[in-house]
Design brief:
This protein is 52% helix and 13% strand. The chain is of the alpha/beta class and 217 residues long. It has 2 domains: 140 residues, Response regulator (Rossmann fold); 61 residues, Winged helix-like DNA-binding domain superfamily/Winged helix DNA-binding domain (Arc Repressor Mutant, subunit A, Orthogonal Bundle). The chain has a 6-stranded parallel β-sheet, sandwiched between helices. Helix 4 crosses helix 6.
């Protein structure tokens, strides 16, 4: 039986190295690619066609939730395992809602991580020990009765511009990263600021931190 093809996406080299070592030692996985920036993941998945994508939630360029959403939409056959420091139900629910097949906590033991990847690769759902299906279901039911989240009204491009802008990149830098013109980048930024009722760069940064798109300082 051929080993499971895996792509790793995490902005910390030591984390990727540790995961590579762990998975390849297991004998049933092969790491076919790595990404340190969220914007690198989609092209990598398209080119390498992995069976499993393991990624962090907080990444530069494009956060893990948006990466999950885009990969799941365009490559639904790819099984996605989110590996995160955050064990809160809102983070887990968002990951599952965006298409993740599993959610593991970074402080899990090596055996737990191997089990998580194997479960996801086998077509099953995996949630780390502290998380329960019942708690997630209860939170999801509560969330469905809430008001529409303005973030859900943003287009994929607007979400990309939001994160890059929150990281402090200028419009020309945002445009260069996304392969669009500065004027188009400015239009997307104006639209997303309006949708999210943000007025200043400070508002935008605070919003990004609150959404978990940027790490808290």
């Amino acid at each position: 039986m051929s080993p499971v093809r895996v792509v790793l996406a995490d902005d910390h080299h030591v984390v990727r190295h540790g995961l590579r070592t762990l998975l390849e030692a297991g004998g049933d996985f092969v790491i076919v690619g790595e990404a340190a920036d969220g914007l690198e993941v989609m092209p990598l998945v398209e080119r390498l066609n992995p069976q499993v994508l393991i990624l962090d939630l907080v990444m530069p360029g494009l956060n893990g939730l948006e990466v999950t959403r885009q990969v799941h939409r365009q490559f639904p056959q790819v099984r996605i395992l989110v590996l995160s420091m955050h064990a809160s139900e809102p983070h887990v629910l968002e990951a599952l809602r965006h298409g993740a097949a599993g959610y593991a906590i970074k402080d899990a033991t090596p055996d737990e991580l191997l089990h998580a990847v194997r479960e996801v690769a086998a077509g099953r759902r995996y949630l780390s020990g502290p998380l329960s299906e019942r708690a997630i279901a209860a939170y999801a039911e509560k969330a469905q009765t809430s008001v529409l989240d303005p973030y859900d009204t943003l287009t994929s491009r607007e979400r990309e511009v939001l994160q890059l802008s929150a990281e402090g990149r200028t419009l020309p830098e945002v445009a260069a990263r996304l392969g669009i013109s500065p004027r188009t980048a400015e239009t997307h930024r104006t639209n997303l600021m309006h949708k999210l009722a943000l007025r200043t760069q400070t508002d935008l940064i605070r919003y990004a931190v609150r959404r978990g798109l940027l790490p808290e300082s």
